Amino acid sequence: MTTRARVSPPAALARRGRLEVEGLAKTYRGKRRTFEAVRDLTFTVEAGELACVVGPSGAGKTTLLRCIAGLLPPSAGAVRLGGEPVLAPPPGMAVVFQEYARSLFPWLTVAQNVELPLRQKKLPKAARHGLVERSLAAVGLADVPGAHPWQLSGGMQQRVAIARALAYEPDVLLMDEPFAAVDAQTRAELEDLTRSLWHELRMTVLFVTHDIDEAVYLGEQVLVLSASPTVVLDSVAVDLPARREQLATRALPRFAELRAEVFTLIQRAKTYHTAPPAGEARA
Amino acid sequence: MTWYPHRRIRAVPDGLLGPLGLLLCAGLLEAAPRLGLVPAAYLPPLSETAAALADEAAGGAFWSALADTLRGWGYGLAVAAAAGVGLGLVIGGAAPLRRVTASTIEFLRPIPSVALVPLAVLLYGTGQTSTLLLVVYASVWPVLLQVLAGVRDVDPVARDTAAGFRLSWWLRLRHLVWPTTLPFLMTGLRLAASVALILAVTAQLVIGAPGLGREIARAQAANAVDRMYALVVVTGLLGVAVNAGARALERRVLFWHASVRKEAAA
């Protein structure tokens, strides 16, 4: 079997999926100006947890994600995945980008796109095809393996990108505002898809978004970032029922409370670096 | 109803306009010398040129000259394409190398291939190899420059995707850099194919290397004006065929590219 156990993750996986970010900072140094995007980020996402990162626009969310993914060297601090420092894109990590149309290769079919990373893993052909088939089925696209991405709608394209990440069987799935470019109905479907896949596969998911509702609806934990230069303002534990449903969950009083809490934090986040000390704002 | 004012009814259907233009041109070429508008000694009526062409086609010399020209063109283009792609991928793949070579390329590229005729004759005499040298020199630049541009055009998100999945150097080249470069390469090849044909004929004409160019020069020397025109028409037809072939190849290879798929998606 190439798939791993789905009900209770083995201890090794539990260790492997733990994501630690410690004192992460990123300053871009150009010829003309330097820009401090991320000042000091420290947080931990436990193995098998679904955490959302939310922050005002321009909060350096993408910078953070690229640092975690090993695509961008941080100026200071460290990222550890399963205890191992991340210095380059680590094995066992997959990224779903917002720009699905640019992330998928238009010259490959849907199935070939999903299969490409598996070829790097040197899996035998039969195993690759099995994974491709199962992943496409899992995102509800079993019937279009031979199509090219550009023949599909935006939502379907992002499903392909998700299937590609799933087939890779990552310990950690990073998602960078993955549903920001699709319409509202599709977005709701993809949110539920993300939840149910996470339920089933129990990998660690770090979901970056600017949408407060989405963060609260999806996450077990919501990390609120300040405006740039970014720090972690607060971490909100989401104590909503594990089974979430677009209408019922969003109608819960607790959902509204959490939403308000995060919203207030975000308002504070925008002026974090200019406002008077936090004690006053908390009043 | 006049809801579609742009859809005027035309007297001649679109599809017939091209052939009609050709027919008009042919008529003019036939009529002008016959009416004495131009001296028939310099521009024989089209029918005489056509007759000369038929004569040519009946003899073996014409076909071997055509084969020589096509060989010079084809081999030269193949060498130029291979060199252009190889150099382009290597140079384009490394930023320092690109900066080091940029000035040299910019210096060598504008040298007209024809200026190398004396060198070619000195090195290889008046044989096929001289033609090859000129063709390769002229047509390597469009390919090289296009490949260089293509390699730089890799989408940052696609690059991140490939890096995120830890794709090897070879998989990235094969499945990301190469397909990204293909549209550029196709444009380069199309330009190079035309340039190569021009240079092949020029070399034969100027150096006297075997081929259609030399036959044209000989026809001129023998004052066989109609034969000369017949050969010129053949080189023109070759040019049309080369361009059409390049475009057909482009459509086939780039079926996924935005410029091609719009037509296909509907």
Write up this protein.
- The complex is a heterodimer of chains A (283) and B (266).
- Chain A has 283 residues and is an alpha/beta fold.
- Helix content of chain A is 39%, strand content 23%.
- Chain A is built from 11 helices and 10 strands.
- Chain A has a 10-stranded mixed beta sheet with strand order 5-4-1-2-10-9-3-8-7-6, with helices on both faces.
- In chain A, β9 and β10 form a beta hairpin.
- Chain A starts with 10 loop residues before the first helix and ends with a helix.
- The model of chain A is unreliable at 1-8 and 278-283 (pLDDT under 50).
- Chain B is an all-alpha fold.
- Helix content of chain B is 79%, strand content 0%.
- Chain B is built from 11 helices and no strands.
- Chain B has helices at residues 14-34, 46-58, 60-93, 95-108, 117-124, 128-152, 156-164, 169-207, 212-221, 225-253, 258-265.
- Chain B starts with 13 loop residues before the first helix and ends with a helix.
- The A-B interface holds A 66, 69-71, 89, 91, 93-95, 97, 99, 102-103, 105-108, 116-117, 119-120, 148, 150-151, 168 and B 155, 157-158, 160-161, 163-168, 171, 175-176, 179, 182, 256-258, 261, 265.
List the helices and strands and how they pair.
The complex is a heterodimer of chains A (about 280) and B (about 270).
Chain A: H1 11-16, E1 19-29, E2 34-45, E3 50-54, H2 61-68, E4 76-81, E5 84-85, E6 93-96, H3 100-103, H4 110-120, H5 125-138, H6 154-167, E7 172-176, H7 184-201, E8 204-209, H8 212-218, E9 221-225, E10 230-237, H9 246-251, H10 253-270, H11 278-282
Parallel strand pairs in A: 2-10, 3-8, 3-9, 6-7, 7-8
Antiparallel strand pairs in A: 1-2, 1-4, 4-5, 9-10
Chain B: H1 14-34, H2 46-58, H3 60-93, H4 95-108, H5 117-124, H6 128-152, H7 156-164, H8 169-207, H9 212-221, H10 225-253, H11 258-265
Helix pairs in contact in B: 2-10, 3-4, 3-6, 3-8, 3-9, 5-6, 6-8, 8-9, 8-10, 9-10
